[in-house]
Design goal:
With 143 residues, the protein is an all-alpha fold. It has a domain at 49-138. The chain has helices spanning 2-13, 27-35, 37-65, 69-72, 76-95, 100-103, 107-122, 132-136. Helix 3 crosses helix 7 (107-122) and helix 5 (76-95) packs across helix 7 (107-122). The longest helix is centred in the middle third of the chain and has 29 residues, at 37-65. The protein is flat, with a radius of gyration of 20 Å.
Length: 143
């Protein structure tokens, strides 16, 4: 009730939205984005280098320790952050023009998972352990 009243009051006092943008999902945006090969190519080139390695890390963790380990382990925040931002990018695919303006947001989470994957694949004897501190960090205590 309070939210409804606040939105009505805000609409009464707000100026006319002359330069506002609609971000509701539309099929025309989806068709336009999928048909624009140049934008799709730049988006994939900008996100794939880290997202592919992050997905490989998540696959390796789920295969060796089970799917629950994806969110229970210290890297759970990175997995959840990456999943949420992938959903944000899927939403932007149907609500705005496809550009890297939302794609770059996956980088902090994907880079951490990519480093974890590289650490697992290369092993301790071939490369410095980039994520050893993350792997040793205790999981948060349950309440």
């Amino acid at each position: 009730m309070g939210w409804y009243a606040a939105s009505k009051v805000a609409r009464l006092w707000a100026p006319d939205p002359l330069y506002s943008y609609n971000v509701l999902p539309k099929l025309s945006y989806l068709g336009g984005n999928l048909g624009n090969l140049k934008s799709m190519l730049f988006f994939v080139m900008g996100t794939a280098p880290v997202v592919v390695l992050a997905v490989l890390a998540m696959w390796r963790i789920a295969r060796s320790d089970g799917a629950r380990a994806l969110v229970d382990a210290p890297w759970g925040e990175d997995v959840v952050g990456l999943a949420v931002l992938v959903l944000v990018n899927v939403y932007s695919l149907v609500s705005t023009d496809l550009t890297l303006r939302t794609g770059w947001l996956v980088y902090p989470f994907a880079i951490a998972l990519s480093a974890l994957w590289l650490d697992q694949v290369l092993g301790d004897d071939r490369a410095p352990s980039w994520t050893s501190a993350l792997a040793r960090r205790p999981a948060p205590a349950s309440a």
